[in-house]
């Protein structure tokens, strides 16, 4: 097997030592103020040999509420705490981008402040339920954002990007995937607006373009990435012409000169966003439409990852579930060493167990 994954590459301003990326993963171990603890810094620094670490999704707004102990980055305590994480990762020789997001209609209604409703492009509820403060609750019918409010939400993303910059992050990734607010704007089943933010794809991509431009204004295009998941159609989200919509999105983002596009391909059973839907391969069209670096993700193992990079379809590959139990995934791939199994019970929430106690290869196995 060729070892393309271990070749260095340029990503925006960064030189990555390899093409193995740790994709964003919410482990719900922040404090009650939605700020990462020292243990979170330890967790990421254990994984610093990845070409790039992308943090767990971090909310840009108090109206974006998910499970307890999930991260946010709209207040000083959160920015300061993420600053300590960035410092720890850099001290370990790593590189780290902050993923920023807004849950929109996927916000937990029982955790919304002041009894407010979740907001969304249109007043259409996500299907299904969420864990809730006092037991499972249905997703709420959200309040459709007024046209005049949209700049305020764009501003929340801007301030989060500024906060991440202040925290010393190498850049930010806008979470445009997985049925959250940006994705709700992009896909026509959740966006029925008629005000220039909905309608044809040029209008549906406008919110993402404004958010991306705001982040670029704060950090520079070479420190901004965007994640999309074209095929994802859980919870009633979905698009009537996935290929046309997302080829357009890729081209529009390409014109902004961002550092990378992060493409979640077919959705993988066993992840929080399962199940997969039938997915025509979009990657070749997106590769053509987007001139910058492409990171792919979703169900990759080392062989598949080598193949997609070798074929020239992607520049790097992101892994999530393998990173739960293999902090030294780069070494294990390099040495064809066995991969450790993750303990599903400790994925979300809790303490050090199942978080920072997965061992690295022993020196004998690592050939030292
Ligand atoms: C526990 C867990 C938490 C996740 N949290 C996030 C997140 O915060 N942001 C995001 O964009 N995707 C999130 N995802 C989706 C993953 O980034 C990824 O797309 C998915 O796990 C498929 O990649 P894999 O096959 O390498 O695991 C999460 C997945 C898991 C399993």
Would you give an account of this structure?
The chain is α/β, with parallel strands linked by helices. The chain has a single domain, classed as TIM Barrel. The chain has helices at about 40-45, 75-90, 150-165, 180-185, 200-205, 205-220, 240-255, 285-290, 300-310, 320-325, 330-335; strands spanning about 10, 15, 20, 50-55, 60, 95-100, 120, 130, 135-140, 145, 170-175, 225-230, 260-265, 295, 315-320. It has an 8-stranded parallel barrel, surrounded by 5 helices. The chain has a two-stranded antiparallel sheet with strand order 1-2. It has a two-stranded parallel sheet with strand order 7-10.
Uncertain segments of ≥5 residues (pLDDT<50)?
A: 272-278
Number of helices: 11
CATH architectural type: Alpha-Beta Barrel
User: N-to-C SSE series?
Assistant: EEEHEEHEEEEEHEHHHEHEHEHEHH
Summary keywords:
368 residues; alpha/beta; TIM Barrel; eight-stranded parallel barrel; binds flavin mononucleotide
Secondary-structure blueprint:
Elements: E1 9-11, E2 14-16, E3 20-22, H1 38-46, E4 52-54, E5 58-59, H2 76-91, E6 96-101, E7 119-120, E8 129-130, E9 137-138, E10 143-144, H3 150-166, E11 171-176, H4 181-186, H5 201-204, H6 206-219, E12 224-228, H7 242-254, E13 260-264, H8 283-289, E14 293-297, H9 302-310, E15 316-319, H10 321-325, H11 329-334
The protein binds flavin mononucleotide.
